[in-house]
TrEMBL record:
Residues 1024-1161 form the TRAPPC10/Trs130 C-terminal domain. The lineage of its organism: Eukaryota, Fungi, Dikarya, Basidiomycota, Agaricomycotina. Transmembrane segments: none annotated. It comes from Lentinula boryana. This is Trafficking protein particle complex subunit 10. It comes from the Eukaryota. Keywords: Golgi apparatus, Transport. It holds the Pfam family TRAPPC10. The keyword Transport applies.
Length: 1177
């Protein structure tokens, strides 16, 4: 059957002589070279949008070759006849005579012929030579040109149908053809528009007569299909598809009305119908069958599908072709199975198989000519679906021939279950030679099955649809299993779940894993680690799906899962080492956020809820939880358990290590002999939350502080001597425990601890100890005791603080079989809590030193006393006196108020012994206010326990609670500092077990007074202090030479004497006393108070105990009470001494003997007369 016309026909006509000339041949060739028409835009009045035709093929045909036969009754395409007729004239443009006598008549005859034809346009093409047009191109032409005459004679409807072509032989200028091609394009579109409108009107008229007698669907179909073939010829494929879709709707309406009188039977199978190419429209004379009202529904549907697919292929929509074919084969295949008894056996399976494969081949042929780069994956997926549909028919045929078992995955292709003892159907009616060969030989069938499956897998993989490819891999594994190739099947089943898991394809994953377990059992392989992993993965899919993926009754599921768990228990018992499996969803562990102290021993309990998602109990041996804290702190809670029943189980886990604070739930673990099921509960920003986890936040667990537990603390030693080897005070608190053995080690970055040099700081403590270079061991420590040890260490003066890691292992008398391990981190400050500054004042042979003590933190420091001690009181030649009362009491140093201590250092008379070269030591006895208050509180608690012995077990919690109450409010500090009374702010809760003892102790503390002899712990700081050196000490004094109480007046000359006494007592050595220094003095200028007359600036020679006297005269400039001028005295550089490249200058200190004196100046008496001008009158 001939297909529709693929191009538009345009006729041309002219005189016979011109058409046979070489000029026309050249013009025709050039015109054909300008075709096809490109980017043609069709704006139809009956369509809302513009249609763009990228390329429109045009066939130029001589009008004389077209026979005007009688109109056929069978509707054909609108492109069967020319849409445009062109008449070519060649007379010169100014040859009006030739036009009037000859050419005009020829045009009239042609015009009469073409205008009588419906839906055809016409165009007159005037061809002129380029040279003649130039010669006749005068600006003023009285008679006009031939083109003007043609337009005047034939453009009667005001539409331009005449165009001039300037032709030059041997040239091919596209610009010369521009106007002609535009007219050609407009003419074709205009004719096509009118033809379409007429045909659509005919279709609407026919469809409107649908309910009238004599109406025929097949005739209507042929009529409306002519529109589709016309659109196809114009490359308007989308419009053609719309026509076929409307025809399909009309056909479905006919089916709905059950009016199939225009069709034959549903199907009249011919011998090759089951194997003929589906999309071929030449295999049968479909249009003749339709016109004869004798086409079957089967052939009609195939014809419509083929035409639609051809249009989709022309529009490069091959993906839709595959989808359309797949839907059609599935839907019509089900319809054919309804009449399976009326058609040859296995016809449906053979037809679907052959049609699917032939459609794939046809799509490949179409795809080789199309650009499918972006659509290639979807196209491959569509072909793969068709191949899988064909492969499904092999499943049916294989089951029918008993080559395949009637069970999943092969039986999933059966729409109706096959009776167990059904007789195989005959294959004689199948005409597909490939199927016939395969169904006669089992191995050939398997090869064909594998070939088609692998083709589908390959296409699925190329399209990125891994799930479908993996499903087909599973069917190949099932085939290997059926054929007895167990190793191949097991390998495939084991590898497939890893591909399903990332995409949450739980159903496929579960099926593959169950098949792997069955295959493993059938092959008789040992249940090793690989088998355990497969079984755990199966349990994982079971838990995630709730068991819905297992297609068996609930009772059977429980029995099946129970058998697997027992097999798992046996398998893990035979392992030679532990096997870890992370994040298994069959068991879920939930941890309480607060732990509970044991109270009777060191350690705490943690409640844990374990949910078993399997329908049977699981035998286990231990459940454990790991909590993590700062600085690598790890605490493990464990509980021995024999079994976990289905559902929730509450367990209480115990950790023997004492710890407190908030900790992060790091991991949990359930042990089943050699199998460790582990879950990580730590979430980070880089880790995704597992799909089975309900929450993605970290879990914090708070453990209360056990005040009666074993503990290790660090403090500064009682005495800190600057310059001496440093040490650290380690305080071991046994709490409730009688400790049989305890050993610990200390470590810190850049610090070395001398464990063998440890000394006992606690008085009256009895214990046995041994030590190694890096560890200290203690034995037989009593309960409720604190043992203090001093441990020397390397220099840490470059650090403000050090972080010490403490590792402690201890056993108690109550549980000697349990060794508790503590990993503690303590930070201790290496700096002193106070800073000391000193100021020295030289007064002859005496030295006054003022020490200013201030706190370096926000805490208050209580100072008991400060002492300045000489190195050797017998031979030093120094006598040190404190310039404060011995009854001064305790001094409190605050951040806003420092403490000052003044000492007088008296040196002996002249001689070698009077010069001290060894450092003095400043000893300060202090304690922090917090330490003092803690001692006062603990002392009050002890007194309360003596009165009420039942409170002894609450001693530590009671003291700690009172301290916490003090920390909430600082209002008590001021009152305590003045009177010693300690008012505890706040009150305990009514239900607090310590309410009564707290109230008793609070009353005791409110009556507390500061003791004259303070008790409690004190710290000592020993700071070395060097005696300062001063080469020259000068005492300057200005003495007024007045008698008694003589009054002094402003402006009165007052005689005075400047006396300078020098001393070398505090020099570098005793030999300095024999030296002489050149000195310079300078009396201060006080220009507002004094006028100094005399030698107020000069030099003199200073000797030890020497005196220099200079007379001066002072004049007070006004009355008042003034200080005398100061005198600056400096040493001049030594003549023969050089220091650091410059002349040496002795250091000098000058003090003003008259610095505290003031002189009263009285105003001078007398009278003065002033004359003031009052102005003129």
């Amino acid at each position: 059957m001939a297909g529709p016309k693929k191009s538009v026909i345009v006729s041309y006509s002219s005189t016979q002589s011109f058409l046979s000339s070489s000029s026309w041949t050249q013009i025709l060739q050039t015109l054909n070279s300008q075709l096809p028409l490109r980017n043609v835009h069709w704006k139809s009045a009956s369509r809302p949008s513009i249609r763009t035709i990228h390329e429109l093929d045009v066939s130029l045909v001589n009008l004389d070759t077209i026979r005007d036969e009688h109109t056929s009754q069978i509707p054909t395409t609108l492109l069967e006849r020319p849409l445009l007729n062109i008449y070519v004239i060649t007379c010169e443009n100014n040859d009006l005579e030739a036009y009037r006598t000859t050419v005009k008549k020829q045009i009239k005859e042609w015009h009469a012929t073409v205008t009588s034809r419906k839906n055809q346009e016409w165009l007159i093409l005037h061809v002129v030579r380029a040279d003649t047009r130039a010669q006749s191109g005068a600006f003023f032409t009285l008679k006009g040109s031939v083109l003007d005459k043609v337009r005047a004679d034939f453009n009667t409807d005001k539409r331009e149908r005449c165009v001039q072509l300037v032709w030059s032989a041997g040239t091919n200028n596209p610009a010369a053809w521009a106007e002609s091609l535009n007219k050609l394009r407009d003419g074709v579109l205009s004719a096509f528009e009118s033809a379409v409108i007429q045909r659509e009107e005919e279709v609407r008229r026919s469809e409107g007569q649908r309910q009238m007698p004599g109406w025929n669907f097949c005739t209507f179909f042929i009529l409306k299909e002519s529109l589709a073939t016309s659109f196809e010829g114009m490359t308007l494929y989308d419009d053609a598809l719309v026509v076929y879709e409307e025809l399909e709707i009309s056909f479905y309406q006919v089916l709905k009305e059950k009016n199939l009188s225009w069709f034959g039977t549903l199907i009249t199978p011919s011998p090759t119908d089951d194997s003929a190419p589906l999309l071929s429209i030449s295999k049968k004379t479909y249009r003749e069958l339709i016109l004869a009202n004798n086409i079957s529904v089967f052939d009609f549907r195939i014809y419509v599908l083929s035409r639609q697919c051809e249009l989709l292929a022309n529009a490069s929509r091959l993906t839709e072709v595959c989808k359309k074919v797949g839907v059609f084969l599935s839907a019509f295949g089900r319809r054919l199975r309804e009449i399976e008894s009326e058609i040859p056996p296995l016809f449906v399976e053979s037809w679907i198989y052959s049609s699917a494969l032939s459609a794939v081949d046809q799509c490949d042929a179409w795809g080789s000519k199309a650009d499918l780069d972006a659509k290639r994956p979807a196209f491959n997926a569509g072909k793969a679906e068709l191949l899988e549909l064909g492969r499904n028919q092999l499943d049916v045929l294989g089951i029918e021939k008993q080559y395949l078992p009637c069970e999943p995955p092969f039986s999933s292709a059966l729409l109706v279950s096959r009776p167990e003892h059904a007789q195989p159907k005959s294959t004689e009616s199948i005409s597909n030679p490939q199927l016939l060969t395969a169904l006669k030989d089992q191995d050939t069938f398997y090869d064909l099955y594998i070939l088609i499956t692998n083709r589908a897998i390959d296409l699925y993989a190329k399209s990125g649809r891994r799930k479908f490819a993996l499903k087909l891999h599973g069917s190949l594994a099932a085939l290997d299993l059926h054929r007895g190739r167990l190793d191949n099947a097991l390998t495939t089943y084991n590898s497939l779940p890893a591909h399903y898991a990332p995409h949450s394809w739980t159903s496929l994953e579960s099926i593959m894993l169950s098949r792997a377990l069955e295959t493993h059992e059938t092959a008789g392989k040992p249940k090793d680690r690989e088998w355990i992993h497969v079984l755990l993965a199966f349990f994982k899919t079971y838990a995630e799906s709730g068991g819905t993926e297992l297609l068996m009754p609930r009772e059977s599921k429980e029995v099946y899962i129970s058998q697997l768990t027992r097999s798992l228990e046996t398998a893990v018992s035979d392992l030679d080492s532990d096997l870890s499996y992370p994040d298994h969803p069959a068991l879920k562990v939930q941890v309480s956020s607060v732990a509970i102290l044991d109270e009777s021993r060191d350690g705490s309990h943690l409640e844990v809820n374990v949910h078993n998602s399997l329908p049977c109990p699981i035998s286990i041996s231990e459940v454990s939880i790991l909590l993590t804290g700062r600085d690598l702190e790890r605490f493990r809670f464990t509980s021995a358990t024999e079994s976990l029943p289905p559902g929730r189980t509450n367990l209480k886990l115990f950790c023997p290590t004492p710890c407190h604070g908030s900790f992060l739930l790091d991991s949990s673990e359930i042990r089943m002999k050699r199998l460790l099921l582990q879950w990580s509960h730590r979430r980070t920003s880089h880790n995704k939350t597992p799909r089975h986890s309900a929450k993605g936040n970290n879990v914090l667990v708070r453990i209360p502080h056990d005040l009666l537990a074993f503990d290790v603390r660090l403090r500064q030693p009682p005495l800190v001597a600057l310059g001496a080897p440093p040490s650290l005070l380690v305080v071991i608190s046994t709490g409730r425990n009688e400790v049989l053995h305890a050993s610990f080690s200390l470590s810190a970055p850049s610090v070395n601890f001398d464990c063998q040099g440890v000394t006992l700081s606690t008085s009256n403590a009895v214990y046995r100890s041994t030590s190694t270079p890096d560890r200290i061991s203690l034995q037989d420590l009593p309960d409720d005791k604190e043992i203090e040890l001093l441990i020397p260490h390397s220099d840490v003066s470059s650090f403000h603080s050090i972080k010490v890691s403490i590792e402690v292992d201890y056993t108690t008398a109550l549980e000697p079989s349990i060794t508790r391990s503590l990993r503690l981190t303590r930070v201790i400050s290496t700096t002193l809590p106070v800073s000391v500054n000193v100021e020295d004042f030289f007064r002859g042979n005496k030295l006054f030193s003022k020490f200013i003590v201030s706190t370096l933190s926000h805490q208050h420091v209580r100072i008991l006393n400060a002492r300045l001690e000489p190195p050797d009181t017998e031979s030093s030649g120094l006598k040190i006196l404190a310039c404060s009362s011995s009854k001064r009491g305790i001094i409190t140093v605050t951040p806003a108020q420092a403490a000052q201590f003044l000492f007088q250092i008296n040196s002996n008379g002249p001689g070698e012994s009077s010069h001290v070269r060894e450092a003095l030591s400043l000893d300060i006895t202090y304690r922090m206010l917090r330490e003092e208050v803690e001692f006062v509180v603990e002392e009050a608690v002890e007194r309360a326990i003596l009165e009420n012995p039942n409170w002894k077990l609450h001693r530590i919690p009671l003291a700690r609670k009172l301290i916490q109450m003090l920390e909430t409010d600082a209002s008590w500090v001021e009152i305590y500092g003045i009177s010693g009374e300690l008012y505890i702010p706040g009150s305990p809760a009514p239900d607090d077990a310590l309410q009564e003892p707290i109230e008793v102790v609070k009353k005791m503390l409110q009556t507390h007074q500061h003791s004259d002899t303070p008790t409690g712990p004190w710290h000592d700081i020993r700071i070395p202090v060097d005696v300062p050196i001063m080469n020259i000490v000068a005492a300057a004094q200005i003495k007024l030479s007045t008698q008694g109480d003589t009054a002094l007046y402003a402006g009165q000359p007052i005689p005075a004497t400047l006396v300078v006494r020098s001393s070398f007592h505090w020099g570098t050595s005793s030999n300095d006393k024999e030296r002489q220094y050149m000195m310079q003095y300078d009396v201060e200028e006080m220009v507002k108070e004094w006028l100094v007359s005399g030698k107020k600036r000069g030099t003199f020679v200073a000797t030890d105990a020497g005196t220099f006297i200079v007379p001066l005269t002072l004049v007070a400039l006004h009355h008042g009470e003034f200080k005398l001028p100061k005198v600056m005295i400096n040493a001049l550089p030594l003549a023969n001494a050089v220091t650091m490249g410059s002349m040496a200058i002795p250091n000098t200190e000058t003090y003003q003997v008259h610095g505290a004196e003031k002189v009263l100046i009285s105003p001078r008496g007398g009278r003065s007369t002033f004359v003031l001008g009052m102005g003129s009158t």
